[in-house]
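User: I'm putting together notes for a lab meeting next week and I want to include a structural view of one of the chains we've been expressing. I don't have a solved structure, so I'd like a prediction I can at least talk through. The sequence is below, exactly as it appears in our construct file.
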Amino acid sequence: MHHTKIALLLLLTLFSMTATAIEAFDHQHRLWSGLLERHVTWIGSGHASQVDYSALKKEQATLTRYLTALSAVERQRYDRWSREQQLTFLINAYNAYTVELILSRYPDLRSIKDLAHYLARRGKSASSHYWERGAASTILSTA
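Assistant: Thanks for the context. Below is the predicted structure for the 143-residue chain, given as structure tokens.
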């Protein structure tokens, strides 16, 4: 009986931790911000930026963790966020999935500037690519 109580207590603790982890979303976008800080350089007196895709590719696992966190957000939770949090989420999701697409074809696709041409050769638009991906289709689809 004592072991059953301990097992039940551990199970309840694990469930509580899991529910908290699911509900908590990092609105600071720390994983994404860290990647940007390490791999994006401002150029042209701060009017443009340059991404070091080669170095970023070495941290693709971190990008994948971030995209997984984005994709785990359910529409109901998203709807409870402030307008600013929603916009920040969507802008970061769009940018992160764009980087993922570039990295998935790197070094053949070396820049976001090449993305439209790359997708056009395959008969797709940039927006159709995002609708096929996790976060955009999860969040923006009708409930």
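A couple of points you could mention at the meeting. The mean pLDDT is 78. The CA atoms of residues 40 and 51 lie 5 Å apart.

User: Perfect, that's what I needed.
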